[in-house]
Write a structure and sequence with these properties.
Oligomer: heterotrimer
Number of helices of chain B: 9
Keywords (chains B, C): Cell cycle, Cell division, Chromosome partition, Cytoplasm
Protein name (chains B, C): Segregation and condensation protein B
Largest interface: A-B, 88 and 95 residues
Strand order of the largest sheet of chain A: 2-3
CATH superfamily of the largest domain in chain B: Winged helix-like DNA-binding domain superfamily/Winged helix DNA-binding domain
CATH class of the largest domain in chain B: Mainly Alpha
Radius of gyration of chain A: 25 Å
Order of helices and strands of chain A: HHHHHEHHHHEE
Structural class of chain A: mainly alpha
CATH topology of the largest domain in chain B: Arc Repressor Mutant, subunit A
Shape of chain B: elongated
Radius of gyration of chain B: 29 Å
Helix content of chain B: 40-55%
Pfam family, one (chains B, C): SMC_ScpB
Order of helices and strands of chain B: HEHHEEHEHHEEHHH
Number of strands of chain B: 6
Structural class of chain B: alpha+beta
Organism (chains B, C): Phyllobacterium ifriqiyense
Largest sheet of chain B: 3 strands, antiparallel
Number of helices of chain A: 9
Number of strands of chain A: 3
InterPro entries (chains B, C): ScpB_csome_segregation, WH-like_DNA-bd_sf, WH_DNA-bd_sf
Chain lengths: 265, 240, 240
């Protein structure tokens, strides 16, 4: 009973990792969709800025409560902060890259698409399903095959057998210690995802540091993401710019040859 | 010498006999198709049917006829991809609880992934994750593969040649679909551009608001209640 | 006041309606019986049918009617020891005998060996056993040979000239692959949840050698002598 009367601050202090159910959400886009739904308007008419604001409030609250948030949520927070800044500052003439409005439209498209898939999933499970609504012959008299092969095996069975056999032999006792620093690989993955969205110069580290790191990790995060960004420049994924010592480091996605889309013809 | 009238009669008789033979043959062939399809619990491919029937039999025509004959019956003939199967009529589901099997319940995530694979196929893992905006947990695809509803289809012809996923014939069979194009609402979704990997150019870009911080008429400000609903705030305690 | 003629008409109409209702009911009931018999895993007794159908339904009459309907069809409704079931018409039994193919499932060991041959081809038996860490019984390889999915490719140019194994075109066909390279790689197996994310850094999965027919540099082709030894050719008889 008393627990209910405890103030938030006390709770945060006394319980270092309070469990609040963020698992109800299937990732940051799902959370955004939920927030958008709360605006109770058509997705095409939501206020993106209000939505961004709500999301950031959510994340800050979660951080204040010292919840462990999956990196996906934080990467999204960093991106939304970037989006918000683009929306608030009108695009300068001659400025490269996508406008805030274009980025916002992309976000709306993604929300709509996710929602559509969710509806589709509901429709799908309500189809007339075999074994629930319709039934096959209960006493089949023969197995009718159109392959002459008398053996059956699926690709899935084949791969499962292979993977588990190789795994069994390879990983008898491998234990990887829990990391306390940002590995180069982590930094690289996060940068890749953020930078993929940014087509003009952005001082990325500020968004990154604000959301993705705790003060204790900050030095490690800066070092790793800087090293990772150099590597990505070398590989041609990224361009990098700094106007002077200790000035912000600007990054941008290096435009690639547009990939041919072979989906759905 | 020849009596033309007689010839005519002969021809007629011949014709009638041919017709009769054809009819007998057709009805025999129909019985054969019926028997083969009835005997199997699994859908039987047209190819497998052809192999088992005399070569001059028009299997497609017979299947159409059989489907017609059974259309109002307790059992219907259903097409699943390039295969055919008898299934009980869907409106009799209420009778069949004794036969009902326990369907494995899919998690919300798995169901969503299944729908995305079905509607967007062939789809790569990266595209799948882009649509959901979240990494797919290790178990999800595994569980779906185990159901036999999804499969590795092939590889996309792009750098890195990523694996593509798609649905199987047993997916169609399970959900009572004739083909992927029969997925509920798929045409509307495609028309709305919601099945493309990228935002289509004609997708409506909203008009920016003058003051981005000001809510529009049909917006409510976010309240603490909302945050509470989201499980982020513990219920407020009155200040003493 | 009463107009007898009018009354008559009324009665007639009532009667027609009743008849019609009965007919609809009967056809509905007929559909129900049909579906239950079709989906049931055992012959169904009249008593069991009565329990599952509306109480006013004349089950015996329906069964008679259904038996009549199916009497000239590819399947007949038959009484099997006091219970009812659909069975292939006796004159079409020959169709079913052809179908009596018992699909055999590959054993776990065989699947493993097949997969290793697919990924690691060209692979010798010794290498295979090294990867598996256990001896491979001759039976397993024989079964795989019988499937037609693996074949002898050639001989490795190393001491002992061991035989190398590889997969066949029918392997690709059966598993729906265009080429061996389409087999998922390490990241994709991981992505599908088949392989743990935490594998030792030196763990690798080979990219399968692509052309199943072309020999690698360190392989020699099989000769007739080899084939003889493998029991694939009957020994040559010297020509006189």
């Amino acid at each position: 009973m008393e627990a209910l009367w405890e103030s938030q601050v006390d709770r945060a202090a006394s319980e270092p990792s309070l469990v609040i159910d963020i698992q109800g959400f299937e990732g940051p886009l799902d959370l955004l969709l939920h927030l958008a739904r709360n605006q109770r308007v058509d997705l095409a008419r939501i206020s993106v800025v209000a939505l961004v604001e709500q999301y950031l409030v959510f994340i800050r609250q979660a951080q204040a409560l010292r919840l462990e948030l999956a990196a996906d949520y934080l990467v999204m927070a960093a991106w939304l902060t970037y989006l918000k800044s683009k929306l608030l500052i009108p695009k300068a003439p001659g400025e490269e890259g996508e406008s805030g409005e274009e980025l916002a439209a992309t976000l709306q498209f993604r929300l709509k698409r996710l929602e559509a898939m969710r509806d589709a999933a509901m429709k799908l499970i309500n189809c007339n399903r075999l074994g629930r609504d319709v039934f096959p012959r209960g006493m089949p008299e023969a197995v009718i095959v159109d392959q002459t092969n008398a053996y059956s095996a699926t690709l899935y069975e084949l791969l499962t057998a292979y993977a588990s056999q190789r795994q069994k032999r390879a990983t008898s006792h491998v234990q990887i210690a829990r990391r306390s620093v940002w590995s180069l690989k982590d930094a690289r993955e996060i940068l890749m995802r953020l930078v993929g969205e940014m087509k003009d110069w952005t001082a990325l580290d500020q968004y990154l540091l604000e959301f993705i790191t705790t003060p204790a990790e900050r030095a490690s995060a800066i070092a790793s993401s800087f090293a990772a960004s150099l590597e990505m420049v070398r590989e041609g994924h990224l361009e990098i710019r700094q106007t002077g010592a200790f000035k912000p480091i600007y990054l941008r996605n290096r435009p690639e040859e547009p990939m041919k889309d072979v989906v759905n013809g | 010498m020849a009596d033309p009238a007689n010839d005519d009669v002969k021809i007629d008789r011949q014709e009638a006999e041919d017709n009769w033979n054809t009819a007998v043959k057709t009805s025999d062939a129909l019985r054969m198709v019926e028997a083969i399809l009835f005997a199997s619990a699994q859908p039987v491919t047209e190819k497998a049917l052809k192999e088992r029937l005399p070569s001059d039999v028009d299997v497609a025509m017979l299947l159409g006829e059989l489907q017609e004959i059974y259309s109002n019956r307790g059992i219907n003939l259903r097409q699943v991809g390039g295969a055919w199967a008898f299934r009980t009529a869907a409106d009799l589901a209420f009778l069949m609880n004794r036969e009902a099997v326990q369907l494995k319940k899919l998690s919300r995530a798995a169901l969503e992934v299944l729908a995305i694979i079905a509607y967007h196929q062939p789809v790569t893992r990266a595209e799948l994750e882009d649509i959901r905006g979240v990494e797919t947990s290790k178990g999800t695809l595994d569980v779906l593969m185990e159901t036999g509803w999804i499969k590795f289809r092939g590889r996309r012809r792009t750098p890195g040649r990523p694996i593509t996923y798609g649905t199987t014939a047993s997916f169609l069979d399970h959900f009572g679909l004739q083909e992927v194009r029969d997925l509920p609402g798929i045409d509307e979704l495609r028309g709305a551009g919601l099945l493309s990997a990228r935002m289509p150019t004609n997708f409506a870009i909203p008009v920016p608001f003058n003051d981005p911080d000001e809510l529009t008429e049909d917006e409510d400000p976010l309240t603490d209640i909302d945050l509470e609903e989201l499980g982020l705030l513990t219920p407020k305690v009155e200040q003493e």
